[in-house]
Structures are given as structure tokens and as C-alpha cells.
Design goal:
By secondary structure, this protein is mostly helical. Helix content is 74%, strand content 0%. The termini are far apart.
Length: 307
């Protein structure tokens, strides 16, 4: 493990060049936010009932802002780690264009605003789930698990799995088995997705002192765990069909996509030491896999959320 400071204020405590809107937007982790918004939209569109277009847009905006706020607080807390890892050194705080204090204030303000607006404009259940998502990502994953256990992404991955439940609750005001099945899909997808990244970034994680599974348990154990999770994920992706939230079009596509995901994991398992291509390819495919899975859910069900 490294000697990276656990004090985020120790990095970028004084800003250099003046920050602009692009720097603050970068704090929101827009690539992560786009996937969160898409899965949240899927939950809304799959839910029974309807929602006025203005309210639907408001709910999606709250989900997006809440996710972005979590990202900003994460960057505040992980500023010391981000300064060490190559893939995160260009973030606003390590570059010195935004101070940790400003990032924290930005994130907390957006967090509170997103939950309040969701509660006032949509309903209390959706607002509660959004608040739980933010708290889970910030307190459980970022502050508690990430630096302490190789199971960080397994447990902490729940934060990224809540958006479809939030979208569903925005329309129905409740939680159902169907929305839980959407949560379960993302929850089980997250470990093999991130471990694929961690396999070819393990040196960076080790340098930053983050106990990702390849750093602590080794590459072979990580590859086995990835295969186990992809095998467990396969039947879970078919749960929406069993629950009546999707039809056979989705079931057929999910089966094909799932087989390919398992085969990707098998390729990673069989890869020779030093060959990072299968892991990089699986990481790229995992993003496409989740997008196509939820896109097919929408295509199968149809877009009938708007009243």
C-alpha cells in the first residue's frame, strides 16, 4: 500500500488557473452521469402508469444532478488518490483549478437541491431513494469501503444500481419486484465491469493505496471472481421477463448478450500473464452490454411513460 495522504485537503488546497464551467462540469463525472441518467430513464419508461413530460424531465434532472453531486464529493475526498493515478491526474482538483473546499461545497449544495426538488416536485419515495443513493456512494463506498476492502466495488456498486429504481418510483411512487430486478442487474454487473478495469490498472491502484481485488488477491483470483459474477448475472438479466416487465424480444437479446459477456470473462480467465487485451476488451464490452440491455428493455416495452 502507498503513503498517499487520507486528507483530501492536502491536495490542491490552493487553486491555480481560474476554473470555468467545463471544470465544474468535469466534477460531475459526466460519463458516469450519462449512464445513470439512461438507466434512470429506463426505470421511468418501464414503470406502469404515466408522468407529465415536465415532471419526467424534472425527475431525470434530479437523478442527473444527484449523481453528479456524488461525483463531486467523491473527487473532494479522493483528491489525494486522483493526484497519483494517471487516469485521474487531469481532474480539476489535482490540476489545481478547483480547490477541495469548493468541490465539496458544490457537491453538497447540488445533493441537497436535487433531493429537495425530487421530493417537492415528484414524490417522497423517489426523493428518499435519491438521498439513499447519494449517501451510499459518498459515505459507504467513497469514505468507508474504497480504501479499506477489496470488496469495495461489490458493496459500493449498489449506489450505481439505484437509478432505475428511482425512475420507477418517480412514476409509481413505490418499489416493486420489477424495479428491484433492474437494480439487481446493475448490482451484479458492476464487479466484473470494474475488475476488468482494475486488472489493467492494478499498478496504479497499488501506487494509490486502493485495495482493489487484483492488488490484494492477485490477478488469477480476480479473473475467477469475474467469471462467477458474469455467470450469476446471466439468469438475473432474465428476471424482468419472468416478472412481466419485458417480453421475449428482450429475453432473446439478453441471452445473446449474456453469452457474449460470459465468453469475454472466459477469455480474461484464460489470458496469459501480461496480456491485458482481453481485460480491456471486456471492460469496453461491459459498457456496451449494459447499454444494449437497457435499450432493448425499452424497445421491447415501448415508450408509454408520458401521460
Amino acid at each position: 500500500m502507498s503513503d498517499v495522504s487520507l486528507n483530501p485537503a492536502a491536495v490542491g488546497s490552493e487553486s491555480g488557473p481560474a476554473a470555468d464551467a467545463r471544470d465544474y462540469f468535469a466534477l460531475l463525472k459526466p460519463r458516469v452521469m450519462s449512464l445513470v441518467v439512461f438507466t434512470g430513464l429506463a426505470g421511468m419508461l418501464l414503470a406502469p402508469g404515466g408522468l407529465h413530460p415536465v415532471l419526467a424531465f424534472t425527475a431525470l434532472l434530479c437523478i442527473a444532478v444527484g449523481a453528479g453531486a456524488s461525483g463531486a464529493i467523491n473527487m473532494w475526498f479522493d483528491a489525494d488518490i486522483d493526484a497519483v493515478m494517471r487516469r485521474t491526474q487531469s481532474r480539476p482538483i489535482p490540476r489545481g483549478v478547483i480547490t477541495p473546499a469548493d468541490a465539496l461545497g458544490f457537491g453538497v449544495t447540488l445533493s441537497v437541491a436535487s433531493v429537495l426538488v425530487m421530493g417537492l416536485a415528484i414524490n417522497a419515495v423517489a426523493a428518499g431513494l435519491l438521498a439513499l443513493t447519494i449517501a451510499f456512494y459518498v459515505l459507504v463506498y467513497t469514505m468507508w469501503l474504497k480504501r479499506r476492502t477489496p470488496q469495495n466495488i461489490v458493496i459500493g456498486g449498489a449506489a450505481g444500481a439505484f437509478p432505475p429504481m428511482i425512475g420507477w418510483a418517480a412514476v409509481t411512487g413505490d418499489i416493486s419486484l420489477a424495479s428491484i430486478s433492474l437494480f439487481a442487474i446493475i448490482f451484479m454487473w458492476t464487479p466484473p465491469h470494474f475488475w476488468a478495469l482494475a486488472l489493467y490498472r492494478s499498478d496504479e491502484y497499488a501506487k494509490a493505496g486502493v485495495p482493489m481485488l487484483p492488488v490484494v488477491a492477485g490477478r488469477a483470483a480476480t479473473r475467477r471472481q469475474m467469471l462467477i459474477y458474469t455467470l450469476l448475472l446471466f439468469p438475473i438479466t432474465l428476471a424482468p421477463v419472468a416478472l412481466g416487465a419485458a417480453g421475449m424480444i428482450y429475453g432473446s437479446v439478453a441471452t445473446v448478450l449474456g453469452v457474449l459477456f460470459v465468453l469475454s470473462s472466459v477469455r480474461v480467465l484464460r489470458a496469459a500473464d501480461g496480456d491485458e487485451r482481453p481485460a480491456k476488451q471486456m471492460f469496453g464490452y461491459s459498457i456496451l452490454y449494459l447499454f444494449l440491455l437497457f435499450a432493448t428493455l425499452l424497445a421491447d416495452r415501448g415508450f408509454d411513460v408520458f401521460a
